[in-house]
Write a structure and sequence with these properties.
Oligomer: single chain
Strand content: 15-25%
Structural class: alpha/beta
Largest sheet: 8 strands, mixed
Radius of gyration: 21 Å
Order of helices and strands: EEEEEEHEHEHEHEEHEHEHEHEHHHHEEE
Distance between the termini: 12 Å
Helix content: 25-40%
Length: about 425
């Protein structure tokens, strides 16, 4: 992509100089060269679509690419293609692979495999060696190698002293303290297959109570208050967790939080048919919790909406519910899911904040805006598109999702980043 004109687009860039304006954008050599009206086309490639919007590039904080170890489920290149189709210009990749990324070599491997792609890969390192929760990993080395943050993914860190030590240690690393991304789920309480409530009782399934999330998160917040550092509560799913985050932020603690897009739209009633495509962790909750999550997104208690992308093959997913692996893919559908869930109650500006600069703030990265001379790191989308998801819309190698056949409002069109244009499959023929 040498020159590209985005013709008559609506700019959604909260805090930026062109927010809420309609303009033509001329992109040249990976930068925004001009912003104006009726820019001459010259030799530039052109995109013109009714309803086309543009925002700073979206960042996903939580995706699993299964590489190394289970590349047949996804892989780095295929995962980045899925991210581009979902409108993401950068994606944090979880370290719980086989072997785990718990040292400099694991971080270097991920960065090398992602070289040259339009989507920037932001590797996460494990918090503990092997992700086993027994000894801190080589955090300094991984940070120097390019680790964006640290997490043991969904593995519990039972040792409170080790968590406090991790917070203290990372607070002293050079630069902005990296986030410790914890998954709040008490390992002794959170052993069911779905949300504990009226629906689990009706179906006769072991439930995961909301208290499992609140108890673990309350402990970690207390340790944060004691030790300092930056704690990130990943994929909160309950009203209690939202209130804990809200109260901690009121006390000026360095606490951030994210929610998986699917948890804003789907409830535990989806499991009536015992379909494993709805089995996720944390589990889908009931309407009261969903409303609290939506309010948390609206008022800023929740900083980021994430895909929580977890590809699985049929052998691990298309089985009896109790034996099925947790997780769904979400990169391609995260925005459509969140926009459909929040439309009418939350402004488009707020939604885009949770996809764009909210995640950057979690990672300690500067906000980006659309301005002449700035790097072109842009997401193209249509917030009003009425469409139904099909398998053709999913570049991901694995298709473990409940959203095939789902009708959505709003969809990503593609990205312009790193001097490249990547369009979602449905829009591959749009550029002229």
């Amino acid at each position: 992509m040498t020159e590209l004109i985005l013709r008559n687009v609506k700019v959604v860039d909260p805090g930026g100089p062109h927010h809420d304006s309609e303009a033509d954008l001329l992109l040249r050599d990976g930068a925004v060269a001009r912003i104006g009206s009726r820019l001459p086309k010259g030799d530039a490639r052109e995109i013109r679509m009714p309803g086309l919007h543009v925002s700073p590039g979206w960042v996903d904080l939580r995706a699993h690419f299964r590489d190394p170890g289970e590349e047949w489920k996804q892989g780095i290149s295929n995962g980045l293609d899925a991210a581009a189709a979902g409108g993401f210009t950068a994606v944090c990749v979880l370290p719980t692979t086989k072997p785990v990324a718990d040292g400099r070599a694991g971080i270097d491997y991920l960065l090398r495999r992602a070289e040259g792609h339009a989507v920037r890969l932001l590797p996460l390192g494990t918090l503990t060696k092997g992700g086993e929760g027994k000894q801190l990993a080589e955090l300094h080395d991984m940070r120097m190698a390019g680790a964006a943050a640290f997490t043991d993914d969904q593995r519990p860190l039972r040792n409170a002293r080790l968590m406090a030590l991790a917070l203290q240690y990372t607070a002293g690393l050079p630069g902005t303290p990296p986030a410790l991304m914890v998954f709040p789920n008490d390992p002794d309480l959170g052993t069911g297959v779905m949300h504990e409530g009226a629906m689990s009782a009706r179906l006769g399934l072991r439930g995961i109570p909301a208290e499992a999330e609140a108890i673990q998160l309350a402990r970690d917040i207390a340790l944060l208050e004691y030790a300092g550092g930056h704690l990130h509560a990943a994929t909160v799913s309950t009203a209690g967790a939202v209130e804990l985050v809200r109260a901690a932020k009121a006390r000026k603690l360095k606490l951030t939080a994210s929610v998986a897009a699917a948890h804003l739209l789907l409830d535990d009633g989806c499991l009536r048919g015992f379909e494993s495509c709805y089995k996720v962790l944390p589990p889908l909750r009931d309407s009261g919790h969903i409303e609290a999550l939506r309010q948390g997104v609206k008022d800023g208690t929740i900083d980021a909406i994430v895909s929580d992308h977890r590809p699985e093959d049929r052998e691990h997913k298309v089985v009896e519910l109790g034996a099925a692996a947790f997780g769904i893919i979400g990169l391609e559908t995260a925005f459509a899911t969140a926009n459909t869930a929040l439309k009418g109650s939350t402004s488009l500006r707020r939604i885009i904040e949770r996809f764009a600069n909210g995640p950057r703030a979690v990672l300690g990265l500067p906000a980006v805006h659309i301005a002449e001379g700035a790097a072109a790191e842009l997401t193209l989308f249509d917030p009003e598109a009425d469409w139904t998801c099909t398998e053709d819309d999913l570049p991901s190698r694995s298709h473990n999702t409940p959203f095939i056949g789902q009708r959505f409002t709003g969809r990503p069109v593609g990205i312009a980043a790193r001097g490249q244009l990547r369009l979602a499959p449905a829009f591959a023929a749009v550029a002229g």
